[in-house]
Amino acid sequence: xxxxxxxxxxxxxxxxxxxxxxxxxxxxxxxxxxxxxxxxxxxxxxxxxxxxxxxxxxxxxxxxxxxxxxxxxxxxxxxxxxxxxxxxxxxxxxxxxxxxxxxxxxxxxxxxxxxxxxxxxxxxxxxxxxxxxxxxxxxxxxxxxxxxxxxxxxxxxxxxxxxxxxxxxxxxxxxxxxxxxxxxxxxxxxxxxxxxxxxxxxxxxxx
Amino acid sequence: xxxxxxxxxxxxxxxxxxxxxxxxxxxxxxxxxxxxxxxxxxxxxxxxxxxxxxxxxxxxxxxxxxxxxxxxxxxxxxxxxxxxxxxxxxxxxxxxxxxxxxxxxxxxxxxxxxxxxxxxxxxxxxxxxxxxxxxxxxxxxxxxxxxxxxxxxxxxxxxxxxxxxxxxxxxxxxxxxxxxxxxxxxxxxxxxxxxxxxxxxxxxxxx
Amino acid sequence: xxxxxxxxxxxxxxxxxxxxxxxxxxxxxxxxxxxxxxxxxxxxxxxxxxxxxxxxxxxxxxxxxxxxxxxxxxxxxxxxxxxxxxxxxxxxxxxxxxxxxxxxxxxxxxxxxxxxxxxxxxxxxxxxxxxxxxxxxxxxxxxxxxxxxxxxxxxxxxxxxxxxxxxxxxxxxxxxxxxxxxxxxxxxxxxxxxxxxxxxxxxxxxx
Amino acid sequence: xxxxxxxxxxxxxxxxxxxxxxxxxxxxxxxxxxxxxxxxxxxxxxxxxxxxxxxxxxxxxxxxxxxxxxxxxxxxxxxxxxxxxxxxxxxxxxxxxxxxxxxxxxxxxxxxxxxxxxxxxxxxxxxxxxxxxxxxxxxxxxxxxxxxxxxxxxxxxxxxxxxxxxxxxxxxxxxxxxxxxxxxxxxxxxxxxxxxxxxxxxxxxxx
DNA sequence: TATGAATGAGAGTTCATTCAT
DNA sequence: TATGAATGAACTCTCATTCAT
Lengths: 207, 207, 207, 207
Hints:
The structure is a homotetramer.
Chain A: H1 3-7, H2 19-33, H3 40-47, H4 51-57, H5 61-86, H6 91-108, H7 110-118, H8 125-152, H9 160-173, H10 186-200
Helix pairs in contact in A: 2-3, 2-5, 2-7, 3-4, 5-6, 5-7, 5-8, 6-7, 6-8, 6-9, 6-10, 8-9, 9-10
Chain C binds a DNA duplex through helix 4.
C-alpha cells in the first residue's frame, strides 16, 4: 500500500479480524462485475474466508454494498469540506482546492469512487438515503462556491446554476477512465481539473 | 409518440412482429434494474409475450443488450456526424452543433442514453467491440474539433487533449439527472451545454 | 389404487402433467418429515421431476402445503356435509353418519388427514384462513347436531358445548395410529367411533 | 409463578446456571415454530445466552428436545400414577382421578404438553424410545383401569380395547386449544373430562 | 411464430455445529 | 462456563436457456 492510499484509509482495520478483507473483496468484486453480477461466494473467495462467515460481518449483500458506499462518500465529503475550510478566502481559490481534493480522492480510491457512482442505484431505503445525503452535501459545497463567485461577478458564466454539477461530473468521471500508469500524474490531474473548473465558470482574469 | 422521439426512431417497426416491443421492454428493464438485475422473464412480461419467444428474436440476453446499445450508439453517432457535416466552417460553430446534437439525442432517448453508458460494461467480445467502436467514433468527432480549434488558436485551453472527453462526459451525464418535467427545456439544455463546451475550451471572444 | 381411495380422489389428474405427482410427493414428504423437515429437493425427487420445475406448478413451498391442506379439508367437509344431508331425521342418526363419514375420510386419506392436523400451524395469512375456515365448518356440523340432540333431550350430557369437539378430536386422531393392516377394518372403525360419539353425548336408550 | 405451575416444577433449578433458561427457551421456541422451524440461534437469544454456550449444556439440538420431552412425560407419568395410587378402590373413581391428574398436567404445563405430542416425531433412537416408553406407561394406566371396569361389568362399552386410547386423546388434545383466559377453569376442565371418560366407557349408573 | 414445461446451475441466506480463547 | 468467529452443508428460490409441440 503506498502513501497515497494510506493517507486516509478508506477501509482500515477495525476490531473485527475479517472486516477489512471482506470490504476490500466486495469493492473489487462489485467494481469488476457490478453489484448484481458479483456473487457473495466470489466475495468470500476473494476475502479468503467462507461464504457463511460473510454473514457474521454483514447481514446481507445490500448491507455490504451500503457500508462500502457509506465509507467512500463520507471520506469524499470529509476531504472536500476540509479542503475548503483550509482556504478561507476567495471563490476561485476555494473552487480550485475543492476540485483538487475531489480529484485526489478519485485517484487515491479509484475503485471506490467508481463503485460509488455506478452502484448507488442498487441501494434502497435508509441505506440509500444516507449515501445520497452525503453525496448531496459534497455537491452542495461546489454549489455554494460557484454561487458565491457568480454573485460577486468573479464567475461570469450565464448558467451558474448547473455549472457546479458539471464540475462534479467531470471530476467523478475520472474514475471511469483513469489508469495510474498513464500520462497524467495525480497532481497533473488535480491541476488540470481545477483549471477546467475555473474555465467552466468563466473566471474573469482581471478579477 | 411526439415528433421528437419519432424524428428518428431508435426502435422502430421491423418486419418481425414482436421485435420492437421486446427491445423496448428490455430497455426499460435494463434501465430500471440494470442488466444483471433484470431477468428475461421480466422482459417477456413487459413485452407482452412469452419467455421462450424472446429466443426467437434474440439468441441470448447478451445479444439483446448488444442490439440495444448498437442502435443507441449508431443513432448518436449518426446524429452527431450529420450535425457537423451540415456546418462546414469554424471549430466554434461545429462544436456548438455537435454538442447540441448530442444533448438532443440524450433528451430524445434518455433511457437509451443512460443504458448505453451504464451497461456497456456487461458486453463482451465482438458485441462490445462494435459498440465501443461507435462510441469512440462519436468521441473522435469532438476530439477533432477541439484539436482543430486549439491548433488555430481559437481555443486557448492549455489542455486540449482531455477537454473533448469532458465535453462528452457532461453531455452524456445529462441522462442521469434530466427530467422532462424540469426547469430546462430540450433547447435550453442544448444551448446551455454548447455554451459550457465553448467555455471549457476557453474560446477567445475576439477570434 | 383400490376402490376406497379412488372413491373420491383427493389428488386427481388435472390439466397439468406433473401436478398430481408433485402434490402426492409433497404429501408423503411432509407427512414423513414435517413441513420444515422436508425439503423441496426431496419433494422433487419423489415426484420424479427437477427441483426448479416444482416452481412452475406452485409458487412456493408454503403454497404447496396450502394446496394440499385445502384439498384435504375441502374433501372432508364435502363428505361430512353430504353425509348429514342424506340423513334428514334425528340427531342420533345424523351424528352416526357424520362420524362415519369423517372416519372413512381419515382411513381413505390417512396421510392427508395426518398432515392436515399436524401441519396447519405452518400456514399463514390467507392460506391459513381458508383452511381454518373449512375446518371450522366441518366442526360446526358436529356442533349443530349435538346442540340439537341436547336441546331435544336425546343427548343427556351435561356438557354439550365441548362434546362435539371431543368427537372430532377422536375421529381425527385415528390418523395418528391407524394401520390398514391392523385389527380394525374401515367399517369397524367407523362403526366403533359412531358408537363412541353416541356414548359421549350420553344418548338415552329410550329416546 | 403461581402455586399450580410450581406445584411440581417441570423445569426447575439445577446446579447449572443456565440450564433452566435454555430449556424454557427451547420449549417456547419449539412450541411456537416446531422443532425444525426453530433454530438454535433463536433458542440462545430467548435464553439470553450465546449460541455456542448452548452446547455446553446439551450436546445437540436433538438432545435438547429429548430432555424436554423426557421431563414432560416423566412428570405426566408421575402425576398420573400417583393419582391412581392414592385412590385404591373402584375403576370409576380411579378413572376419574387419572383423568383429572392428566388434565391438570396439561393445564399446568400446556406448552410442554403440546410440544410433547407434536414434536416426539422428531426424536430418534434411544431418545425416542425412552420418551415413547414413558408415554406408553401412562397410557397403560388408563388401559388397565378400563379393562378392569369392563371385566367387572361396570363399564358397559362393547369396545373397551380402544376406549382408553380415546380418553387419553381427549385429554392431551386440550393442549391444542386451551386458553387460561377462557370460560373453563382448570377444575372445570378436569371435572368435565372425568365425566366424558366415564360416559365414553358407558359406566352403569347402578353399579 | 409462439407457448408451457422442463432443466442444471447458481443465487442469497440460514443451519447446526465446532474452534480458539 | 462463556464467547465470537468460523465452517460446510443445506435451504428456498430464480436464473438463462432449451425442448416439444
